[in-house]
Amino acid sequence: MAYQVSARKWRPQKFSELVGQEHIVQTLTNAIELDRVSHAYLFSGTRGVGKTTTARIFAKALNCEKGPATEPCDACVFCDEIREGRSVDVQEIDGASNTGVSEVRDIIDNVNYAASACAYKVYIIDEVHMLSRSAFNALLKTLEEPPPKVVFIFATTEQRKIPETILSRCQSFEFKPLSQKQIVEQLRVICDQEKIQIDSRSLGEVAKIGAGSMRDAQSLLDQVIAYCGAEVSHGAVESVLGVVGHSALETFVQHLIDKDAGALLALVANAAENGKDLNFFCRDLIEYFRDLLFAAVAKNPETILDGQIRDVEKLKQQAGQFHVDQLHQMFRVLSVAEMEMKRSSLPQAVFEMAAIRLTDARPFRQIDELIRKVGEMQPGPAQATQAIPSDDSKKKPETPRPASVAAEAPVAETARSQESPWEQIRMQVCEKKPPFQHYLSHCRVRAFEGDSLHLEFDDSFTLDLVKDEDKQSIIRETAEAVCGRPIKLKLSLRPNGSAEAKTQETGKTSAAEKAPTASGIEPSASGAPSKKQMSKTESEIIQNALDIFGGVVIR
Ligand SMILES: [Zn+2]
Predict the structure, then answer these.
(1) Are 388 and 498 a contacting pair, CB within 8 Å?
(2) N or C: at which end does the chain have fewer Cβ atoms within 10 angstroms?
(3) 246-358 is a CATH 3.20.20.70 domain
(4) Is domain 391-518 given the CATH code 3.30.300.180 in the classification?
(5) Half-sphere exposure (CA, 13 Å, Cβ side) for 526?
(6) Ligand 1 (single-atom ion) residues, CB below 5 Å
């Protein structure tokens, strides 16, 4: 193949070509401009983020025929020599292979002679943390009394291994990992120059695995091009990089929506059999869930989601099938799994367990609601029910008193009929805005008479979401269209809102009617719950705690 992309070929030769690290470039060029060049610099940061490249450009800027200049010409004899590593005045030393004191002595003996041709003598010591202690000590003398026109540039991936005495004599710069966007842009420049056809999603995958390192991303791109040639298909990229495709992520989430654990496990097993990296799979899922969350909470997800990488419509549709709490929980389950997979000798098993756990994610309940519910589970029902409403009225003044609404049960009963106006409204609203499928599964019709539609929500979280003016107007306008008259919409939190509402058919029985035993636990003849009732109580408490704190039972 004629084209050979490589980190070397595309190494930036001028400050203006450097990607990222603008703050460092700014400080270095200011130093040149103000003639305040320090005698020692320390460049630290992860590999492949431009430390040595910046050091070389800086050496050229100091020594350029037209300099010291804030930007080297990259054409004069000095720039040429430095770029090609031939300059006697700019030396690059690999700290990893020259760790001893004798190598450092060679440098130090040399330091006191003036530069032969260049303005500055520059010593670039890469992987400087590998130097031995005695080598550092020898170096320290020179740093304490530096000869004029000598600049040391130390580069390291492990700043914490540098002795404090050295650190304190250097101007220190921390190089940041490059963003995915910065890497993609640079890869795009390279591919355009090399006439490689590749889509943005593929470049995104390459950049992602590069994890902030331009050099790693460029070598991965080399691999992909070596495999595919000048026309790179997305499927080929996925197989070279060992990542699962976008469609696999969509399918994974669809299985979650269907609560089909078997299909999920089959999908994971299939990915492993096809040589996919399950760590990447898990990481990609984390990102996918982040995007689902964005789609669920943002008014215009199109503005924050990358349409070239994601099918935003599909995301919105899938996000609508979950409660925001569930998405949060799933995100967290996967984040924990990703960390555990790295430590485990059985990463696939960890991933599979996480997949099963995902099918179990449920919306959180408010902690005050849980405390109230735990209170309701205490033996004396009279005591519990007395304490609850007063507590409730203090915290949620908007909670309507049950007595103030008439004839709730019969109306709610009719709402269950397929042909009822409410059912029509509900279906039409959900058709217009799929997330309402979820919101409205957490509410019931408290009253629907004349021009008033009163909806009661199980939890304040969903209530707060639907209280949004835009969402309210969707319900109101749909109701007005169905009923053919103006409708006043009222939203409130269900009094004594209990978890039971979720398991019972909505609207069947009002909380007021059930008030004495709101939790559904009948006191036994003695007034204390039976053993069976008690065990149910305990497991419910535990489950609620798990839901709130997102934990799992270990034993
Ligand atoms: Zn030059």
Answers:
(1) no
(2) C
(3) no
(4) yes
(5) 4
(6) 64-65, 72-73, 76, 79
